[in-house]
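Is it possible to get an amino acid sequence alongside its tokenized fold?
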Amino acid sequence: MAYTTTAATGNGTTRVAITGASSLIGRSLATLLVARGDRVVAFQRGEFSTDPVDADVTAQVEQHRGDVRDRAALDAALAGCDVVVHLAAKVGVAGHRDEYVAVNVDGTRNVLAAAKRNGLRGVVHVSSPSVAHDGQSIVGGAADPPVAYHGTAWYPETKAIAERDALAASDGVCAVVAVRPHLVWGPGDVQLVGRIVERAEAGRLALVGGGRALVDTTYIDNAVTALTAAVDAVGPGKACAGKAYVVSNGEPRPIRELVEAFCRAADVPFEPRNLPLSVALRIGSIIDRIWSRLDRSDEPPLTRFIAEQLGTAHWFDQRAVRHDLDWQPTVSIDQGLKTLTDWFTASRTDIPSR
């Protein structure tokens, strides 16, 4: 990855903790912070490691294994830090509400409390644009206030509660900024690109409303430099304190175009079925009602929330985040797709023949 924004020119004296550091964003953020000379503390349930080519980064990261539901573990990790980037979350659409509450709501409250106990100047709370999506199209929207009710979509509902708590906790000693990266993708992504490729390979790829909805996405490098800019900007009395920002490439494209590009990069068939939005909403609502009763832990094929996300436009005004965080994306979607294609090609080349 090549980071070239002004966000990558820190003074190298910041000690930054990252919860959920083993995620794609977490690993990439740690790599950038180490590269610019910052001291990084990784906090996650499993082992933290970057790509083998960045093994030297792993060696320079102070590791703490723990869970955001464990206050003592958080205190141990955040001691002596200046800022914490709170990435840890329960994602997806499968599971019971109490599971999402425990991690996304209670876990966030624990991180906020630990930050204050340990004298940190700031918290970068990583949220999601879905917290403010009410099922209607968002066209050039700002970071609107979180929506209180999301049906049975526990992820956006609990992330909405967590963001409200986080911003309310911002004060003159420990400031909080919420950053909502929108649909992050790139090499190694298993959440967006990985699922699309998997469904395309299995012949189960479907587009809601023909994939005509216009959406913003965020290439991984841009998401990471935005978070780094937030690390530098957050603090008591700063412009971003107590505010939320949506981060994206600022290049809205039709979903169909993006999905086709991901399939082309992975060299898998692009043969989607079309599902009208009205039909997708009805099917999603039915699945919402029955999935939890089946006590299944796997991801359902469709939910009403997913249908709304795939069938409605959502792209955002980027002026506030670029002004207040002194940040702008430097990797275009087309550049990112070229890198993604190269990554898939190299991945296939690295697979030993049988």
About this structure: The two ends are 31 Å apart (CA to CA).
